[in-house]
Please model this.
Amino acid sequence: MGSSQVWLNLTLNTLALASLLAMLTIGLTLIFGIMRIMNFAHGALYMLGAYSGIAAAQLLGNFWIGLLAAPLAAAAFGSIFEYTLLRRLYRRDGGSFLLVTFGLSLVLTEAIRLIFGPNTRDVDLPSVLSGVVWFGDEPYPAYRIFLIALGIVVLASLAFVFLRTRLGLLIRAIAQNAEMTHALGIDVQLIRSLTFAVGCAFAGLGGYLAVPLITGYIGMGGAAIIDAFVIVMIGGMGSFFGSAAGSLLVALTQTFGNYYLPDFALVATYLLMICVLLCRPGGLFGEQE
Amino acid sequence: MLHIDGVEAGYGTGKVLLGVNLEAPSGQVTAVIGRNGVGKTTTLKAILGILPLAAGKVSLDNMDLSHKQVHEIVRSGIGYVPEGRQIFPTLTVLENLRVGQRRPPRIWTEDRLLELFPNLRERASNLGRALSGGEQQMLAIARALVTDVKVLMLDEPTQGLAPKVVDQIGDVIRRLKAEGVAVLLVEQNLNLTENVADRVLVMSKGKIVETVGIESFRSNGEEIRHRWLTI
Model:
């Protein structure tokens, strides 16, 4: 493989990984932006999406059904959690959210272990995604191209919603001043609940999409959430565009780092975060404190 | 007409309002004055539902608003301009206006508001944080009006503003009064109060302790100041 083909391969791998990371972190940052809570259960919801999607796909023998079931299951579970528990905590300090969401992540992880068992799980890709795409003489997995395309579509759609729709305007207003938005006649609770559900749905979708690459396993959420927190710190807490940029930077560091400096790759992501925070303490797109 | 009857409210378990009674009739400016900490801002927050009522009743045109949620109270026709303006800093002027806009706008359309506040038309695409204090105050008033208000509650609208801007705000309040809006004005600037108010309510220790017609306020202003406002 020539060096240009290596670079093409690494670049495409970076974009595919960035798409996956973006699905996870955009949900996290949406929830933080509008509710000012760091959802420690986000990783568990990522795993819930993966396992629900796998179960639906295996039950009906269709990968695409899993792609619908994963975000729906995570959104439904997240909505019940928000309605029954989180809503009671809005007037309390952030520590309450931390404890409750962390507790939920433990409960949910063990519940998934009890229901699905401790073994790893996989999903069969449809033929259109299981083949390869040829770049000259070099094959490249079609599934990763699908991830890149889906990531671009999702990010472009979300950017459109944020910048061009009334819902996006209200989300931005609530993120800046929820009490004032409420005092302008907006049902802030409704938008918060909706945003929480959408954030959870993205976690679930990200989990299911990751399965063909990493297989589903108990604890996959814990590994993913660490990357997600790093990305949110790099991009800026609560910033949608920061999450997208942070996902790309972390994916770039991990992919190229693993290829060129494999012994150094693990710390490279954290070094990146430290460098960004030293230069911009609020993150790339976050507000400076 | 906005009608407040025996309202008690506060923060946590501590009560600040100990039975507030007041009326704000349509087409009139009702000013509330008093020392810092007597409950003026708390009264506005209790009317709007930001603070829950411990007792009493809030009604607008005979519709009971007590214990309704904030957005329901605002949608029934009560607008609020908070102390400190609280503009959305990274939304543009137009976006600030559109947050609370009814669909479709009924009374205060965007064009009508921009005619009332011509400065905002020129700065329509600027971010809220790029506006001067006076422009931010105009935007805060316009943003409250766009919710199609019958009652507009203004909390210290002239705080920290230049005299020329205070005059402009006075003109806007008179215009709103002429349009039939009931204005409930909490204000420390007694010159503005004298110029725009129809009645002045004096508040002390969580209650309205005196109601004064504007002519009486103008003639006995010094005595009222001495009795209720000096420390």
Observations:
- Strands of chain A lie at 132-135, 138-141.
- Chain A has a mean pLDDT of 92.
